[in-house]
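About this split. The held-out portion is used to measure sequence recovery: a designer receives only the structure tokens and must propose an amino acid at every position. Recovery is the fraction of positions where the proposal matches the reference. Here is one held-out target exactly as it appears in the evaluation file.
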């Protein structure tokens, strides 16, 4: 039988639920950010995190520290899978809001940095979900290759291979965009 705890405001909660809340609370921002970066839709990212929270709560008994996985990695694996499932249902991605990108110290540097980040995001958005999720977890989720391998249920070599392929795709996409931009600039100069 569960112990009951009274929270401020007189709301009664099971001790298990309160413990779970304290366990997941530090990871909610990362969970939402990861889901959002994978899905590119605010509401679907919320849905993915909500589904992950429910699944984690229901299957918390399966989490075992002795298996060498942190709670953060275990929970983020669930979030990633829920987000990928929603991507499969959604099939298309939306443009990431440019306001989300960071700024540099000077206005010119800021504009150049923002353009580069937008080019990278456009390249990431065109990737298959397996490559996109690996890139986002590694570069934006700050997970190690070993943690990503466990989350996605693949070998570490597969994660490295996906990262290599993703970097190559980003480079190719940026070269194509730069070439197209160069053609437009040449057209403007020729028409002046």
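Reference sequence for scoring:
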């Amino acid at each position: 039988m569960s112990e009951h705890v009274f929270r401020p405001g007189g709301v009664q909660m099971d001790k298990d639920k309160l413990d779970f809340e304290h366990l997941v609370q530090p990871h909610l921002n990362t969970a939402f950010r990861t889901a959002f970066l994978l899905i590119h839709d605010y509401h679907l990212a919320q849905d993915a995190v909500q589904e992950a929270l429910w699944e984690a709560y229901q299957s918390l008994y399966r989490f075992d520290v002795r298996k060498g996985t942190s709670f953060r990695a275990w929970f983020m694996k669930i979030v990633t899978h829920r987000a990928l499932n929603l991507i499969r249902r959604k099939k298309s991605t939306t443009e990431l809001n440019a306001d989300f990108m960071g700024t540099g110290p000077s206005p010119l540097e800021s504009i150049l940095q923002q353009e580069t980040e937008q080019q990278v995001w456009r390249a990431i958005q065109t990737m298959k979900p397996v490559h996109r999720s690996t890139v986002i977890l590694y570069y934006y989720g700050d997970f190690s290759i070993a943690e990503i391998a466990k989350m996605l249920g693949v070998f570490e070599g597969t994660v490295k291979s996906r990262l290599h392929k993703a970097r190559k795709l980003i480079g190719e996409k940026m070269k194509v965009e730069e070439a197209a931009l160069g053609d437009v600039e040449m057209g403007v100069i020729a028409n002046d």
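Annotator remark: The chain is about 70% helix and 5% strand.
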